[in-house]
Design brief:
It is a single chain. By secondary structure, this protein is α/β, with parallel strands linked by helices. The chain has 14 helices and 21 strands. It folds into four domains: 122 residues, 3-Layer(aba) Sandwich (Rossmann fold), CATH 3.40.50.12160; 109 residues, Transcription Regulator spoIIAA, CATH 3.30.750; 116 residues, Transcription Regulator spoIIAA (2-Layer Sandwich), CATH 3.30.750.200; 54 residues, OB fold (Dihydrolipoamide Acetyltransferase, E2P) (Beta Barrel), CATH 2.40.50. The protein has a six-stranded parallel beta sheet with strand order 2-1-3-4-5-6, with helices on both faces. A hairpin with a 3-residue loop joins strand 20 and strand 21. The longest helix is centred in the last third of the chain and has 24 residues. Bound molecules: iron/sulfur cluster. The site of iron/sulfur cluster has 13 residues, from helix 6.
């Protein structure tokens, strides 16, 4: 289970980011559809950057593109089924325009590899997450025979490749790739490879480019982002270096692993006002036997102590988490401990899932799935009900306060605008404000998901 969050899980794939500056479409146009987590959004921007340098330009509509790439996710079977469904829709495009290069990239490409050609024989290109450096050349090769490269690199971090960033007010910067944790339920280490960090000077360079492009907020990305290290430079040092980049006012990161928080990192977060007081801190289960079976490398006591330390050091800290219910062997008593821990910690929000087996993981091979589908469903409903109540109560504590908001753009209702607080809460407010500006908003009401307010 990936700890990076799925982007807009219920709203379909993200379209190709716009390439702002005009480049001659000498080689044709490209459209990238992104599935999965923020890491994939960031990778899609790298892919577009590579193709842009090679003379491609971005198509605004998939139907008009010469190259169509689906950047995919393998975290759950459902994610792969969606892409297979999308590919079958695209068979019409291939029939109408056989010269279009249709590619599948990312985690699912690595996971299914050649099998994809059996299932979708009209795919021209299959590229794993470490194969984007040669993307332009691979697209050329795929014009003849189907081309495939799913090798994982021990050292590929895409140093020197500048992303073509999407619109929006946040710049994603990948600071490390892969994962060495091997949680028993998770496929990420198998499809994204071993952990490796990007050189700190390259990350600072990326932050400087983002600032020059006008971004005031950056999010540092990695599967276990706080295990980052470049020689003597650890994640706390990296945050400080990025905080010194002129023009950057907010720094976020996702997703950290609870075991990789150090006192130095906690102290740095508490001290530097540019580092946002929000942490996505994946819990997964509130029962020690389950955490052990998951190979999560922390106990519930350690997790609770970490939360205590973080809250003591970082005023107003907002916390979100991931919870898996119905992991093999989880008893009713174990599950009750998860509910207890949630009541104790009072997360601002949570991503909650029923356990489902993922082929190729240790859990699938070695741990029999003992919890019935009905029980899993009931437990999921219980955690969601509990968390919804807590989220609403936490949001209610904001009512009456004035918060600084980074404006994202117009909200759905005319005359309203939406943005984010530094604690990563979505706020919709009455009044108009330019995207990518900071405004003060007084919170007047809330739901469990959204703060509601008016310009202060
Ligand atoms: S830390 Fe665990 S859950 Fe997160 S990516 Fe690595 S193996 Fe997967």
């Amino acid at each position: 289970m990936d700890e990076l969050k799925l982007i807009e899980p219920s709203h379909g794939p993200a379209p190709t980011p716009a390439i702002e500056d005009v480049v001659p479409a000498e080689r044709g146009t490209v459209y990238v559809e992104t599935y999965g987590c923020q890491m994939n959004v960031s990778d899609s921007e790298v892919m577009l950057g590579v193709l842009k340098s090679a003379g491609y330009s971005a198509a605004t509509r998939l139907e008009e593109a010469d190259v169509v790439l689906l950047n995919t996710c393998a975290i759950r079977e459902h994610a792969e089924d969606r892409v297979i469904g999308r590919l079958s829709q695209l068979s019409h495009l291939k029939m109408k325009r056989p010269d279009v290069v249709l590619g599948v990239c990312g985690c699912m490409a690595k996971h299914l590899s050649e099998q994809l050609l059996d299932r979708v024989p009209y795919v021209d290109l299959i590229l794993g997450p470490d194969s984007y450096r040669d993307l332009a050349q691979m697209v050329q090769e795929a014009r003849g025979e189907p081309a495939l490269d799913v090798k994982l690199g021990r050292s590929e971090t895409y140093v020197g490749l500048d992303p073509a960033r999407s619109e929006g007010v946040n710049a994603w910067i990948t600071v490390m790739r892969g994962c060495d944790k091997f949680c028993t339920f998770c496929i990420v280490p198998y499809v994204r490879g071993r952990e490796r960090s990007v050189a700190a000077h390259e990350i600072v360079r990326q932050a400087e480019i983002a600032a020059q492009e006008g971004f005031q907020e950056v999010t540092l990305l990695g599967q276990t982002v706080n295990s980052y290290h470049d020689g003597e430079t650890d994640f706390a040092d990296l945050l400080e270096q990025v905080a010194r980049v002129e023009g950057i006012r907010r720094i976020r990161f996702t997703s950290p692993h609870p075991s990789d928080f150090t006192p130095k990192l906690i102290e740095t977060m508490g001290r530097d006002p540019k580092i946002c007081p929000f942490i996505h801190l994946p819990l997964q289960s509130g029962a020690d036997p389950v955490l052990e079976a998951m190979q999560r490398s922390y106990t519930t006591a350690e997790y609770r102590k970490l939360v205590e330390d973080l809250r003591a050091a970082i005023p107003g800290l907002s916390l979100s988490t991931d919870i898996i219910v119905g992991f093999p062997g989880e008893t009713r008593e174990d599950f009750d401990r998860t509910l207890d821990l949630m009541r104790g910690v009072r997360f601002d929000s949570a991503f909650m899932f029923k356990y489902s087996e993922r082929e190729g993981t240790v859990a699938e091979r070695e741990i029999p799935d003992t919890v019935s589908a009905t029980e899993k469903g009931e437990r999921l409903e219980e955690v969601i009900t509990l968390q919804n109540g807590i989220s609403l109560e936490v949001n209610q504590t904001y009512v009456g306060r004035t918060v600084e908001v980074l404006v994202e753009g117009p909200a759905r209702r005319p005359g309203q605008t939406s943005g984010k607080t530094d604690t990563f809460k979505t706020i919709v407010f009455t009044g108009e404000a330019e995207p990518n500006t900071f405004v003060d908003v007084t919170v007047t009401d809330c739901t469990q998901k959204t703060l509601i307010g008016e310009l202060a």
